[in-house]
Amino acid sequence: MASSGDSDLFGKGSLVEVSSEAGHGFPGGWYLAKILERLPPSTPSPGTSGSSKKEKEATFLVEYERLRVKINNVKTKLVKAVNFEFIRPVPPRPPNLKHQIFEPNDVVDVYHVEGWRPGVVFKALDEPGCYSVKLKNPPHLLICYRSPDLRPPLDWVHGKWVPLQKQQKEVATSNQKREGGNPSKSLLAGKECDRIEGAVDKMIVEDCATTGDDLVGESTGVAMNYDMPYKDQNMRFLEDSPVLQFIQAMDIFQSIPQEPHFRPLAACEEVCREGLALGHMMTFVNVTKKISTLQASAPRNDFDSLLKFLSELELHGFNVEAVRSRLLVLQSLKDSQEQLNRKQEKIESEIIEQTHERSKVKVELDEVIKDLKLLEDKKREVEEKKARLISMNNENDSEIAKLKSGIGSLSEEIKKVDKEFKSVTGSPWKKWPTCNCRP
User: Fold this and answer.
1) pTM of the model as a whole
2) Which of 129, 146, 164, 176 is most buried by its number of CB atoms within 10 A?
3) Per the database record, which ranges form the Agenet domain (predicted)?
4) Shortest CA distance to 150 belongs to which of 93, 192, 205, 234?
5) Could you give the CA distance from residue 262 to residue 277 in angstroms, rounded to a whole number?
6) What is the pLDDT of residues 382-406, one digit of tens each?
């Protein structure tokens, strides 16, 4: 678990592993999640001396990468508030994991049902990198590969990664060795832990009577002979199946021949194995058919589901390389098409926006043109008035000049009359003729 001094390592968006003790998944498991945000600390209740230890610890809102929850019949990623003590950074990947060799009784982390769980290596199998592993929660015996199913366990203690050593083993002999026989060892589901941070769990081992190299899996009663090739061992129950012959005659199995080993079905009840195996065969048929009829407009969930089914089929020994390659090419083309569609939608949106802006400009331009026309009409009216006034002014000037010319003649007449008037007033008295003057 993490300590409060490590809080600076867990920023928003960081990938972490969340312990199943936080309330989800099988006990002892770790689940990949992303930190969404750090939540504010809780406020102590009135009347208390202070916050409890949990109230003082940091709490984070995390989004699980693989765990899903149904909301209104729609599956979505699980989001949960988790105390800091239940999270840790993602453990570093060992540099040579593909070539690492595990030995019996080695403690390992096993990737199973969307999370990492504690397990113990039971036996290295004939196929390189393949092991039988006893899983504690749920209690299963699994066939696993060192990569990507197994990893060395690490514990996060005081801000450092500490490798877990081999578990201390206790052997309780419940059955005496039979003469000439070497009993195999099977791990019980029991587990002891003193609950101290960084403590090493103790797995208890006991002997169980088996015949030769046959191992009887716990809760299944299925005998597995590890010296027999997987294909022969797991296909025996299908040899005489008419349904299998019918399925194998399908075109897809002629195009992509398959030899699945169905190793995971060894942990299932015998009565179920044939149906489950045939179901996987039909799943392969349906997946390839679905891929052949995929449309670029198909939801992304369809692609994700098909990839998930291919991974499941691969665990059972199906050769899905060609199918997965085609699906990934289609997915890439879909991504490219979606990207182009987004660009087209963006351009179309810009065209609509520019068209709307153009309409606004057009209305304003029409108003300006209308105003200009009014101004031109006004200007023409003013010009006409100007010309009329200039003409009138010219006429007035001509009339004034004419009148001024008349005034000059009158002045001469006035002067003449005035002169005559003075002449009359200054002359001697005598009889004057009647005046014929006219005003």
Assistant:
1) 0.39
2) 146
3) 100-158
4) 93
5) 7
6) 999 999 999 999 999 988 888 888 8
